[in-house]
Amino acid sequence: MKDAFGTPQSLLVLGGTSEIALATARRLIARRTRTVWLAGRPSPALEAAAEQLRALGADARTLAFDALEPGSHEEVLGKVFAEGDIDMVLLAFGILGDQARDEGDPVAAVRVAQTNYTGAVSAGLVCARALQAQGHGSLVVLSSVAGERARRSNFIYGSSKAGLDAFTQGLGDALHGTGVHVMVVRPGFVRSKMTAGLEEAPMATTPEAVATAIETGLRRRSEVVWVPGALRLVMSALRHAPRAVFRRLPV
Amino acid sequence: MSGDTVADMPAETVSVTGWGRTAPSVARVVRPRSYEEAVEAVRGCGRRGGIARGLGRAYGDAAQNAGGAVLDMTGLDRIHIIDTTGSSSTGGAAGTVMCDAGVSLHRLMEVLLPLGWFVPVTPGTRYVTVGGAIGADIHGKNHHVSGAFSRHVLSLELLTADGQIRTVERGTPLFDATAGGMGLTGVILSAAVQLHPVETSLMTVDTERAMDLDDLMARLTATDHRYRYSVAWIDLLARGASTGRSVLTRGDHAPLDALPARARREPLTFRPGRLPAAPAHIPEGLLGRRTVGLFNELWYRKAPRSLTGELQKISTFFHPLDGVPHWNRVYGRSGFVQYQFVIGYGKEDALRRIVQRISGRGCPSFLAVLKRFGDADPGWLSFPMPGWTLALDIPANLPGLGGFLDELDEEVAAADGRVYLAKDARLRPELLAGMYPRLGDFRALRADLDPRGVFVSDLSRRLNL
Ligand SMILES: Cc1cc2nc3c(=O)[nH]c(=O)nc-3n(C[C@H](O)[C@H](O)[C@H](O)COP(=O)(O)OP(=O)(O)OC[C@H]3O[C@@H](n4cnc5c(N)ncnc54)[C@H](O)[C@@H]3O)c2cc1C
Ligand SMILES: NC(=O)c1ccc[n+]([C@@H]2O[C@H](COP(=O)([O-])OP(=O)(O)OC[C@H]3O[C@@H](n4cnc5c(N)ncnc54)[C@H](OP(=O)(O)O)[C@@H]3O)[C@@H](O)[C@H]2O)c1
């Protein structure tokens, strides 16, 4: 169960090697979290991540999960919930793709959309139903500022996150009154392996900062969290910028 | 609505919290109106079990059960027998009441005071049920004299996981597991409670100020035995030399001859009086360090340095907060936590350190309460033990509060003290067994009595009770 500050005792991470998710897990383990499930594509990195969390005192386990195989989600994730309540699900999987290449490779572009959007629709619905049956729990979804308004430079990724974001908000409304809390997290540029080698955007932040914002959001039962917080205002200005101006902005 | 509930037993699926309004969860709340309906409700709990709930005055998650059933017991509110002479089947001396578990202490006062009897123990609010009083084995300002609520319970009827109703006598393991057992042994349906005789419905109260914590502890230690009721309100925002400054209010039921002539004609009237409720929506952050500090300051200055024999209403003396219904809303959406612990006599240093840490940190806490407990009662998870107990409210949205309270827990645990489960919403589960040495017995009895785990609450899930 979550405590009075929204801190979970059990955590299921979808996208178990995500740097943002692991920073969040470390932070929550330092407070209350004891059981952690890392769901992801089997790899030494996934096992190493679990090992690292065990060293912090958590009972961390891995399970094979692929966002691109929605047909398996029900069964794979169902097993986790069958073992005990999950206080928080962190939906963290996602790929950035390579916009320049993907524009010329529609199959690769679709993979971005399928991972970030349809994969999340499927996994999100499966988890939502299980949480609803529990009558409590948080579903935390890593969206992105990129979904707020699609940009020339990464609209394939951006549009997938826009879909994810809209889906999550709607799901939050659907789950209102069920005891399940749904939180959309919209980070800006985060220094992680996803962005390694890319030129940093203004207001770049760290996985640890996202983790802190998530912990605060849980305490406040927030529905939307921006990281850093100032991005909320920046994005609200950008959202209203005229199209001709927005197109030419170096963002 | 699922079909496994009895036809027409009131039931709705709603969000439930404790008085502190933190960690809401959704449950199917059913409201049995008879013992038969209670039995049906327990039988129909379903996979995620059920838990009894009284008036929801426990601060944390004790009377919640996410995804399962919550049995609202306030529909079982009949007073069966009031025995003022000691002749009937309640089994006690003169002054016993036999009533349903959903009867509130408020109702008992309304009915019993005119007859010259008072509840044996009352907490800081009258709006608790007899079931909740036993489930949390509550204490009042008279603990140093009268012990906890269960000391005055002669017997009770318990609806257990198998759907049977058992009469549970004091002195048995099931009684000791149930007193303070947080509803986890079953649903209390009724109880026979020994009452305390009074001549009037007024209190005579002595008030004095203490300038710091040591002064306070010295005064309480020296003279508590002279009073049936005793408590001190501490200003935890005062720092430096005035750390722990407080106001002691102690008293007893006023004898008839202490009343002025006019009041003597109707000495037993009970008119508590209420103010308008706190508004439903209050912005966050209203209660910062400054505002609360100012309130505490004014309150301390307004208290008399020393005043004896003042006549006060029962409601003024025992239940000052009950005057404002829903006062818990002033903490806004994030709610608040109450932290209450007890530390044994001889461990005063730990108490001093904790008080110093709280005031050093500047937690915006309204008046905290310090009191001396007397002997413990046998309930396995009963909270009181001989020592000092401190209770304070803190807004839950205070950054870093979780970690800070964890540190205080460490101090409490190191001093062999314990945290009160009826107030708790955040204790680290690993500390529980050390604080409650009979936890193992409690778990074993539950495993035996309720092998399928019918009785569960958010509290029991969180702390693995
Ligand atoms: C302003 C205020 C002041 C307070 N002051 C004090 C104080 O001075 N001393 C003190 O000890 N406590 C105090 N409390 C706490 C309160 O007395 C306890 O939490 C009490 O248990 C609340 O009773 P309730 O009927 O509201 O029960 P709930 O809060 O609804 O339930 C509390 C527990 O009792 C169990 N329970 C309730 N009914 C039954 C039943 N019929 N059968 C089995 N189990 C049952 C529940 O499962 C739960 O575990 C205070 C609370 C408030 C809000
Ligand atoms: N970094 C940023 O700047 C930033 C900004 C805003 C939002 N976000 C979002 O935050 C989330 C986490 O990002 P991060 O920075 O922590 O990046 P990361 O470390 O690269 O994590 C991405 C995760 O997604 C997993 N994943 C990818 N495809 C998958 C699939 N088909 N099935 C299962 N898992 C799959 C990866 O697992 P593998 O190990 O199997 O590859 C990895 O665990 C992502 O959704 C990202 O879009 C990131």
Automatic annotation (TrEMBL), chain A:
Presence of the UniProt keyword Oxidoreductase in the record: yes
Pfam families: adh_short
Enzyme Commission identifier(s): 1.1.1.100
Transmembrane stretches, start-end: none
Keywords: Oxidoreductase
Domain of life: Bacteria
Keyword Amino-acid biosynthesis in record: no
Enzyme class: oxidoreductase
Example GO molecular function: 3-oxoacyl-[acyl-carrier-protein] reductase (NADPH) activity
Family: Belongs to the short-chain dehydrogenases/reductases (SDR) family.
Protein known as: 3-oxoacyl-[acyl-carrier-protein] reductase FabG
Species of provenance: Streptomyces jeddahensis
From TrEMBL, chain B:
EC number: 1.-.-.-
Entries under Pfam families matching the protein: ALO, FAD_binding_4
Domain called FAD-binding PCMH-type: residue spans: 22-198
A GO molecular function held by the record: FAD binding
Keywords noted in UniProt: Oxidoreductase
InterPro entries: ALO_C (IPR007173), FAD-bd_PCMH (IPR016166), FAD-bd_PCMH-like_sf (IPR036318), FAD-bd_PCMH_sub2 (IPR016169), FAD_lactone_oxidase-like (IPR010031), Oxid_FAD_bind_N (IPR006094), Vanillyl_alc_oxidase_C-sub2 (IPR016171)
One annotated Gene Ontology cellular component of this protein: membrane
Gene3D superfamilies from the UniProt entry: 3.30.465.10, Vanillyl-alcohol Oxidase, Chain A, domain 4 (1.10.45.10)
Name of the protein in its database record: Putative decaprenylphosphoryl-beta-D-ribose oxidase
Organism, scientific name: Streptomyces jeddahensis
Gene name of this polypeptide: dprE1
